[in-house]
Amino acid sequence: MTTVAWWHCFAGIAGDMALASLVDAGADLDQVVAGLRALTVDGWHVEANRTTKAGLAATQLRVDVGAAETGAERTWAEVAEIIQRAEGLPPRVRHRSHQVFAGLAAAEGRVHGVAPGDVHFHEVGSVDAIIDVVGTCLALELLGVGSVYSSPVALGTGMARSRHGQLPIPAPAVLELLSGAPVYGSEHRLELTTPTGAALLAGLAESFGPLPPLRPTATGYGAGTADLVGAPNVLQVVVGELGPSLAGEHQDLVVLETNLDDVTGEVLAHTVATLLGAGALDAWLVPMVAKKGRPGHVLNVLCEPATVADLARALAAETGTLGVRQHLVQRWAAHRHSVEVDVGGLVVRVKVGPYRFKAEHDDCARAAGQLGLTVSEVARRAEEAARRPSAPIE
Prior knowledge:
Blueprint: E1 2-8, H1 15-24, H2 29-36, E2 44-53, E3 56-65, E4 74-75, H3 76-84, H4 91-112, E5 120-121, H5 127-142, E6 147-150, E7 153-155, E8 158-162, E9 165-169, H6 172-177, E10 183-185, H7 195-204, E11 205-208, E12 215-223, E13 234-242, E14 249-260, H8 265-277, E15 282-289, E16 295-303, H9 308-319, E17 325-333, E18 337-343, E19 346-352, E20 357-359, H10 361-371, H11 375-387
Parallel strand pairs: 1-6, 6-11, 7-10
Antiparallel strand pairs: 1-13, 2-3, 4-5, 8-9, 12-13, 14-16, 14-17, 15-16, 18-19, 19-20
Helix pairs in contact: 1-5, 2-5, 3-4, 4-5, 4-7, 8-9, 10-11
């Protein structure tokens, strides 16, 4: 079983809300605080209280810091050193925390036009932000969470004060961090999603979308500071288990499709190959009967959201189509890896999944021509060799 956590960001996300939601879901705050003591920062205290937001019970966290931390500023290198020197932290907690702040440094660097190593964290470099990030990673570890997912993220509007003066909401760093993720605006005139919250999503969330199919084991609600009109200002987390049939990498993808009734088979085959070479995850043709009884095909292209524009242009250029449709899909891809085996002195790659070994056809075809064997025979030998890597087939 794989334990996962899904954040429902209908009221945005902030660092304290993320940690509070996990504590509300069952992560022991005393154990989180004990783990945080490994950090080489002093003068802080974490307090949890029960509260209600629009009638919904939730946990609210407050991190008190000393007067010396007011207006504190740290470089990315200083924050990284604090994390790396915390020898008592579990390796995955250290890695996740480093990943969150590294993404934040890259985003801040792009916003301000400086190299990530030269970024100076202001609010997000203070002790309370470090506690929020590392504490959230510790809480995930205590709950045994292996993968994190998120809903689309709500953003506020208006203007907010910062060290640099008035900045728009959503903050520039938030938009940089959530580039490529599904977000949507709201009429709430406050910062629903903070840079720290966005950095947690950018560093931890494997994908964005609806609640994945799982067996829920715990639910938590982390309260924000402000009160919203008509909605609870909370971050919901659902912790649950993906069974063997559900486990795998959850991805939000796009399917492009177009109807073609005036393109030759040779052009269709070339187009499919071109799209695969340009980054499509898959491409296929479905026969159909078009208008006026003409035979035709529906060309489908499965791709990541970031590649939609390029692949749509390639599809139109190759086929001359006048229109391309798109729709969002979700995919749970089983974990797989590739191994190389020896067949008659030639290397053949074999894809290894949880239920099947599959030799790469191109490698098998190349080897078959050189060895005087059929493609199916080469594939059989390669797959047997992959199952018994200590005894490769000759």
